[in-house]
Amino acid sequence: MLDDFFIRAVIGGIGVAVLAGPLGCFIVWRRLAYFGDTLSHSALLGVAIALLLELNITFTVFIISVIVAMLLLLLQRQAQLSSDALLGLLAHATLAVGLVVLAFMTWVRVDLMGFLFGDILAINRTDIVIIWIGGLAVLAALALIWKSLFAATVNYEIAVAEGLKPDRANFFFMVLMAAVIAISMKIVGVLLITALLIIPAATARRFAISPEMMAIVASMIGAASVWIGLEGSLRWDTPAGPSIVVAALLGFIISLLPVQWLFKQLNFNRPMRG
């Protein structure tokens, strides 16, 4: 079954979607979209270093993403800049340095478009194993810190008062985010990872009645986006990674329509006064 490139792409893409759903919920709740964007941009620097030193790309991207996350925490405590400014600085700096390093490595043939926008149709069995085993490990770790991380998201002071150690939970959340970036990079690329994290979670928020349900629905929406995006990519010969994100975007737009329609009906059918 795994000999079919489309089946491999679907299995790998669904694995990433299942992984991205719950973490994407915390990004939406905490309004950390720019943080996820910063880590995804830093992934290209990890790619450049891995190629330069002949290291495993996934592992190197993970390490660089963790370093960038820790550097952000350090700068937030010492620098006189806002978090938005620091995130912008790190995002663009790491992306630029990564591109410059790749440009100097003339002896290495680099598929830059593949790293930027993903190449899900080229994943192999090893990639699938990394995605699913790594993804399940990340989800298991997230389940362990879920209570303290969610408490810190709702109210940091209350979480501290209850002894839930929110700082430790925040640190592990950053590490898990770095792992997601490293695992997802080959699927949708460094420029589209944040979209895959945010859009399904934002769509799920309109249907879920509890945080846990939102995480499950986000994973389901992401998985459906993978299937629909890949089908559309094969039918219309469009890039697979962007097609998946477009499918997720269409799902979000569709989720808005019933609410807008009901709102209009309530307004138009309201009896006139006087």
Walkthrough of the structure:
This protein is mostly helical and 274 residues long. The protein has one domain (5-267): ABC transporter involved in vitamin B12 uptake, BtuC, CATH 1.10.3470. It is built from 11 helices and no strands. The protein has helices at 5-30, 33-53, 57-78, 83-104, 112-117, 125-154, 156-161, 166-188, 193-204, 211-236, 240-268. α2 (33-53) crosses α3 and α2 packs across α8 (166-188).
Computed structural class: mainly alpha
Quaternary status: single chain
Number of helices: 11
Major sheet characteristics: none
Helix content: over 70%
Domain count: 1
CATH topology tier name? ABC transporter involved in vitamin B12 uptake, BtuC
CATH architecture descriptor name: Orthogonal Bundle
Q: Tell me, what is the CATH class? A: Mainly Alpha
CATH-level-4 superfamily name: ABC transporter involved in vitamin B12 uptake, BtuC
Indicate the overall shape.
globular
Q: Strand-and-helix sequence, N→C?
A: HHHHHHHHHHH
The radius of gyration computed from the alpha-carbon positions, rounded to a whole number of angstroms, is 20 Å
Distance between the termini: 70 Å
Mean pLDDT: 85
Parts with pLDDT < 50 across at least 5 consecutive residues: none
Number of strands: 0
Instruction: Tell me what portion of residues adopts beta-strand conformation.
Output: under 5%
Key traits:
globular, 0% strand, 274 residues, ABC transporter involved in vitamin B12 uptake, BtuC, 81% helix, mainly alpha
